[in-house]
Amino acid sequence: MPQPMLLCMVGLLGLAVGSFLNVVIYRVPRGESLVRPGSHCPRCRSEVRNRHNIPVFGWLLLRGRCADCAEPISARYPLVEAGTAALFVAVAAKFGLGWQLPAYLYLAAVAIALAAIDIDVLRLPDAIVLPSYGVALALLVPAMIAEHSWAAGLRGLIAAAALYALYFALAVIHPGMGFGDVKLALLLGLYLGWLGWSSLAVGAFAGFLLGGLAGAALLIARRADRKTRIPFGPYMLAGAFLAVFAAAPITHWYTSLLVHTA
Question: What percentage of the chain has pLDDT greater than the value 90?
Fold first, then answer.
């Protein structure tokens, strides 16, 4: 399949998945069903009409307000949809039409949902994280068999255990680290380890770096203090995807610095 066609199809898929992720982000923390009732306004409970349920364009058509009660609709809805589509396209451009593509598209979808939920409620729901272990294995094992990537599979399992152990130790030592982050570390370790040890190192370090920079910025801006709980999941996920897309150039840059200073 020509790459432009692949990217177009994956982008449309991303829009549709992003629309579903909006439901996941709103309902999972509340313990609500993802199936019933259908999409509706939280205020007046009116069902969203089909023509208004088109990703991004529905929000634009409504001008960001409910068609029945004029309640403002958060701009995050189209942003999640467009962001999912953009991330799906980036993942497809990275991996192409290969066996790994479904696994990393799934990770992209889960990452957006978990990041948004963690920002909202400071929690990474087990209802999303724990089933993702099985889904990840179900998607990566066929890739391992088809591409004879036995080393990648073993490395992924070892990396998952190692990153889990690191975060578990940190959670025990530092009360601010939640066990939701520990469980997420197991999933990210599997995906990053599959790509290589450099991806694992870059992804793990980048998560701490991004989280530290964000925390420092909030302290400087006086929007938080040392006791304020800050969601760390979004930074873990951002660091992981930074590694997915750029681990090789980052590793090359860092090793070149070591060579010059030696």
Answer: 71
Tokens at 163, concatenated: 């990153």
The tokens of 135 are what?
């889904």
What the block records as the tokens of 159 is 């990396």
This model's pTM is above 0.90: yes
The count of other CB atoms within 10 Å of the CB of residue 74 is 12
Which residue, chain included where needed, has tokens 């090793």?
A: 255
Average pLDDT, whole number, for the chain?
92
* The pLDDT of residue 224 is above 60: yes
The residue length of the chain stands at: 262
Nearest-angstrom CA–CA distance, 206 and 202? 6
Amino acid 45: pLDDT: 80
Residues 128, 114: contact at Cβ < 8 Å? yes
Buried b (16+ CB within 10 A) or exposed e, 9-31: ebbebbbebbbbbbbbbbebbee
Q: In the prediction, which pLDDT does 118 show?
A: 97
pLDDT score recorded for residue 50:
84
Say if CB 5 and CB 83 are below 8 A apart: no
Chain Cα centroid distance, residue 19: 15
Pairwise CA distance, residues 224 & 212, whole Å:
13
* Dist. CA 177–CA 231, nearest whole Å: 9
Tell whether the model's pLDDT for residue 260 goes beyond 70: no
CB neighbourhood size of 220 (10 A): 9
d(CA 126, CA 114): 10
> What one-character-per-residue DSSP string does 213-245 give?
HHHHHHHHTTS--TT-----HHHHHHHHHHHHH
List, in sequence order, the alpha helices (H) in 147-229: 150-173, 179-195, 197-220
